[in-house]
Amino acid sequence: MRIVSSLVVPILAVVLAACAYAAPDVTTLHFPSNDGKTRLTGYLWQPQGEGPFPAIVMLHGRAGPYSTAAKGVYDASTLTQRHRSWGEFWAAHGYLALHVDSFGPRGYAQGFPIHSYKNRPETVDEQTVRPLDAYGALQYLRSRSDVIATRIGVQGWSNGAMTVLAALGGATPGIMQPNPQSGFRAALALYPGCGEQEKQDYVPYAPMLMLLAAEDEEVSPLVCRRFGERTMARGGKLEFVLYPGAQHSFDDPGSRKQANDANRAATIDARQRAEQFFAAHLRDAERITK
Fold it and tell me: What confidence score (pLDDT) does residue 205 get?
């Protein structure tokens, strides 16, 4: 476990300016969930070049993939700044990124308000349903000729990060006998709730990185810290970072979150760690150049 100081990192704008690039277009597509009945909506960012590329499945949080200003228009044009910026970030670094809308196809495109977890319908349960969406996205990506089928990772935020934990656990819905070759190669979980997995003798089947906010107002970083320590003690390939002063959704690039120095520092460090983590686990040095 690492605790990162918020005082040693430059402001977000400087880093983003230094890494400026032409934002790729996002493509809307559809594919089946492994639940056998839901046709999911996905948003795809593709890197430049011919490929094949490593890929990343992206899973939104409880507020859904769309902006609060969407006003009933739920499509690529109203994706949140956070999800769009991460999709562009991965494409710029040579990954094909697929963001999965789990809520819209089931009638909840607007997402759910804060502290609504206990009232959320079972049709969008992150422990039993959304992992089926994650593996539906994995199967779709493996069908594409521009994707390296054995080099696919998964990234989730909040409720989507809880989906990541469930998808990589021992009782994994959506895939038989999971391992890094048959399932996801690596997983990134940003500020999940860890209560369900803490009850289990949890060991992820693939390497996992958790990024936690010390001042999280929605989920307990202390529970996740305890869960992480116990998982590592069992031999689980899990690393976690706790950002002092950072809040839930610290990587939201909007001015309200980024006005907080700790959130800005956490965002920069999270981007750097995420890229290093997936580079270590998803890149094939013989076929992919950075």
Answer: 96
Q: DSSP for 167-206?
A: HTSSS-TTSSS--TTTS-SEEEEES---HHHHTS----SS
**CATH code of domain 2-282:** 3.40.50.1820
Amino acid identity, position 76: A
Does 10 sit behind a cis peptide bond, omega within 30 degrees of 0 on the bond before it? no
The secondary structure of residue 103, as a DSSP letter, is: S
204 and 168 in contact (C-beta within 8 Å)? yes
Distance CA 243, CA 51 (A): 35
2-5 long-range Cβ contacts below 8 angstroms, 24+ apart: 2/239, 2/240, 2/241, 2/242, 3/214, 3/241, 3/242, 3/243, 3/244, 4/241, 4/242, 4/243, 4/244, 4/265, 4/266, 4/269, 5/244, 5/265
How large is the average pLDDT for residues 83-107?
A: 98
Q: Is 40 exposed, middle or buried (0-12, 13-18, 19+ CB in 10 A)?
A: buried
Q: What is the pLDDT of residue 176?
A: 85
57-79 as b/e: b if 16+ CB within 10 A:
bbbbbbbbbbbeebeeebebebb
Where are any strands of DSSP class E within 46-194? 53-59, 96-101, 147-157, 186-190
CB 223 within 8 A of CB 197: no
The residues spanned by each domain of the chain are 2-282
* Position 42 confidence tier, pLDDT thresholds 50, 70, 90: very high
Element (H, E) at 254: none
CA–CA distance, 99 with 137 (Å, rounded to integer): 9
